[in-house]
Design goal:
Blueprint: H1 6-20, H2 22-58
Length: 77
């Protein structure tokens, strides 16, 4: 009762095809594929930027690098 048989899914697929049409479903699939590809490319680009930032932080003397310095204690008289 909780799971659907193959016939239930085929009937749902036929109803969806009748409502939306095959051309619109094909366009939605292409749009979804393009969105996934764009997401993957963005993730690769973000990883490359993070790797470049780590490499820049490892090299001393780079512009924009913050150097932590321990302040000297002042003597009280």
């Amino acid at each position: 009762m909780g799971s659907f048989s193959i016939w239930h899914w085929l009937i749902v697929l036929v109803i969806v095809m009748l409502v939306f049409g095959t051309k619109k479903l094909r366009n939605m699939g292409a749009d979804l594929g393009g969105a996934v590809k764009g997401f993957k490319d963005g993730m690769k680009e973000g990883q490359a930027n993070a790797d470049a930032a780590k490499a820049a932080a490892a090299e001393p003397g780079k512009v924009g690098q913050t150097i932590d310095v321990k302040p000297e204690e002042k003597s009280r008289v």
